[in-house]
Design goal:
About 35% of the residues lie in helices and about 20% in strands. It has about 290 residues and is α+β, with helices and mostly antiparallel strands. The protein has 3 domains: about 1-45, no CATH class; about 60-80 and about 175-285, Toxin ADP-ribosyltransferase, Chain A, domain 1 (Alpha-Beta Complex), CATH 3.90.176; about 85-165, no CATH class. The strands form 3 sheets. It has a 6-stranded mixed β-sheet with strand order 5-7-12-13-9-6. A 4-stranded antiparallel β-sheet has the order 1-2-3-4, with helices on one face. The chain is globular, with a radius of gyration of 21 Å. The termini are far apart. It catalyses: L-arginyl-[protein] + NAD(+) = N(omega)-(ADP-D-ribosyl)-L-arginyl-[protein] + nicotinamide + H(+). It is found in: Secreted. Keywords: Glycosyltransferase, NAD, NADP, Nucleotidyltransferase, Secreted, Toxin, Transferase, Virulence.
């Protein structure tokens, strides 16, 4: 929503902008509810001071676990179940195939975003996101990819719906990154059990956001994941530093690709911070342990 508002005010020089739940009158600096014009509140445009840093977005960097009994999945190597299913559904066989069919795929993505936006009452957001894709649909795969990353970093309905769906997968009923979490006692016990087991390998099936900034990641939650890729040459293929493309570069966001596997090394309790620290190491299917 912030991107829509800022574009309307700064770029398009509009006197007002309509969002899904409200509209803003720039001249009178007031926000008005779309369903009840008597619900109004004053607004003020404030430019963020990037020098001051700030908190991470809690909902993004500390998602509530979707699967009740676990926050991880069994080892499936580098299979990306959700993405593989998508590729199969549109008969996409290879990267070269994607290059040839990128226009078609972007069009399918636009239709899907509009549909999901309508379902959750976010049609204005969906229309704006689709407009961003429309601008790059005839450009290179790199341009389209960068646009998709930018869209993913926005505070919108899209990344929440995407990761919600991906985290439901498997539900039957020298570089470190950090992610906070609010885990139940049962979930913490599950990590401890797996760490002591003969095969402590597991996987994340959703896109998972972490930060290079440990201090920011420690601001919330009762657990902290420390993802270690210190000795891995393939770090960049496993994780993506998307801070340069993000709407919020100060979050220093590292995006873990879906289907990436890791080894649960150990679980410790930090009494000074009152948090469980869960140490993970990125692995590949070729790793013996």
């Amino acid at each position: 929503e912030n991107a829509i508002i800022e574009e309307a005010f700064s770029t398009l020089k509009k006197t007002h902008v309509i969002i899904d739940d409200y509209h803003i009158d720039f001249e009178h600096r007031v926000q008005i509810a779309n369903d009840d014009k008597t619900k109004q509140r004053p607004i003020k445009r404030v430019e963020m001071n990037k020098e001051e840093g700030g908190r991470l977005r809690e909902a993004r960097f500390m998602p509530n676990p979707i699967v009740p009994s676990s926050s991880f999945h069994g080892l499936v190597g580098l299979r990306k179940i959700f993405i593989d299913s998508f590729m199969k559904s549109i008969d996409l066989k290879s990267v070269n195939d994607w290059e040839k069919r990128k226009y078609e795929i972007v069009e399918k993505a636009k239709l899907g975003i509009l549909h999901e936006g309508q379902l959750v009452g976010k049609q204005c957001e969906a229309n704006w996101i689709v407009e961003q894709l429309e601008k790059v649909k005839d450009k290179t795969k790199k341009d389209i990819g960068e646009c998709c990353v930018y869209i993913y970093t926005l505070e919108s309905f899209l990344y929440k719906i995407l990761n919600h769906a991906m985290r439901l997968i498997g539900d039957i009923d020298h570089e470190n990154s950090w992610q906070s979490a609010q885990l139940t006692d049962e979930m913490i016990a599950a990590y401890q059990h797996v760490a002591r087991s003969k095969d402590p390998r597991r996987s994340f099936q959703a896109f998972t956001s972490c930060s290079r900034n440990r201090a920011k990641a420690e601001q919330f939650g009762n657990a902290l994941f420390v993802l270690n890729a210190e000795n891995r040459i393939s770090y960049r293929t496993l994780n993506m530093d998307i801070s340069a493309l993000s709407t919020y570069p100060d979050e220093e966001e590292i995006l873990i690709r879906p289907g990436r596997s890791f080894k649960i090394e150990r679980v410790e309790f930090d009494k000074t911070k009152n948090k469980h620290i869960i140490y993970l190491t990125s692995i590949s299917t070729s790793d013996a342990n």
